[in-house]
Amino acid sequence: MTQPRKVILFFPKVQPRKHHHEMPLSILALVPELKKRGYSVLLIDERLDRHAFSTLERSLPGAICVGISSMTGYQIQGGIAASKFVRERTEIPIVWGGWHVSLVPEESVRSPYVDMVVRGQGEITFAELVRAIEEKKDLNQIPGITFREGEKKVIHNKDRPIISLNDLEPVPYDMVDINRYRPHFSYLSSIGCPMACGFCADAVVYKRKWLSMDPYRLADEIATLSKKIGWRIKSIYFIDNNFFVNSERVKIFCEEILKKGIRITWEALGHPHQLARFDDGYYELLRKSGCYRILTGAESGSQTILDYIGKKATVEDTLLFTKKCKQNKIIPVLSLMCGFPKSPMEDLKETILFINDVKRVNRGAKIKLFFFTPYPGSQLYQEAIDSGFQPPNTLEGWSRYTLAVRNMPYLDPEYEQMAVWFTNKYFPRLTGTKFISWEEVLSAFNKTKRPFFIKSFSRVGTRLFKRGSS
What we know:
By secondary structure, the chain is α/β, with parallel strands linked by helices. The chain has helices at residues 25-28, 31-36, 52-59, 74-87, 99-103, 105-109, 123-134, 202-206, 215-229, 247-259, 272-275, 280-288, 303-308, 315-327, 345-361, 379-386, 395-399, 413-430, 438-447, 452-469, and strands at 6-11, 40-45, 63-69, 94-97, 116-118, 145-149, 153-156, 184-187, 190-192, 210-212, 235-238, 266-270, 291-299, 331-338, 366-371.
């Protein structure tokens, strides 16, 4: 009896506790090509499998290799833990893929927990690598991989050309329990982005190319999926970095959805400059097809900062987009950042006032505010390093690199203190409930800077007051 030609794909937790609803598309996308070549595939999603390591242990006998997905930060911790677990039990190769190792492949493969790295799109590359491992063939001829030869030598093969989604098989959603990923159904209809925002690493992986799925195929796939999953999900979430690059493609998709009578809701992300230029008829078509929410990277309320980070958009673009969404009953979600290198206090002030302007235009707009985190490969990452930022230089170090851990020597201490306070304390409670003047913000911030003994006394007094009134 022949042994099954088996491949294990492991998706580590993305966060320590919170359940993440997005499907593990990074490993699901690998399945069709592997199955086409005769392999059986086991998917392990640590977020959902409370006994993920037991499942992994039971599955190791006879496996050709273990593939691990990686995103910078916490997910690497789970990947390292899984790699250690595998290495203690077997010598089968451990292959890492995903955003992080694609951006720093040579550094990553020097880790004892990584034998090989699949860079960028992994569908074809990983299948070829599995075949080479199985047949013990030379790895030097496989484009898109980086691997360690011996203890120290690192081989970095040439890049694999980017493959259009039209040339790949549909993602096999039936491999997972769709119901466990509700309410949002993740779907990728394009890869890359033609823009070159200074904080984004997409341009490093996809070379500023944008390749999209044909709108007719897209509508057909959504139609097929809607029949299987319609009542079990709240919406389809297009996770494309820039869904609206080709407005005609989106128009055809919406028209096809309406022609087919598909009743879905969906959301996607677009660039503010383009979104501001769609007319009301276009927005009406989006809404009729089921679009209920559009996300955009507004980034800052300061035009100086927008120009500095290469956003190719204006503050007015975002406000106009926000207004058009209100007129067409679509929810705009704006992502903002503070703490860019060389950010003056004026940037934070203009961003806070910009939030007020957005709320005046559209009370229903949603705001997300983050601290800028230098990401490997991006233009601002190098500028942050030149300004004193010291990035991790090991896979283990990157596993502790999260939004909650700041290392920003390039920021003015007063700016950083205020930005951290506003982002974590003041903003989440008040945004959307009232307009926030700069004077109010300054006053509230200054109260947090009172001497320690006064703040402690104030807290004790508050507790006593609450106890006495209960």
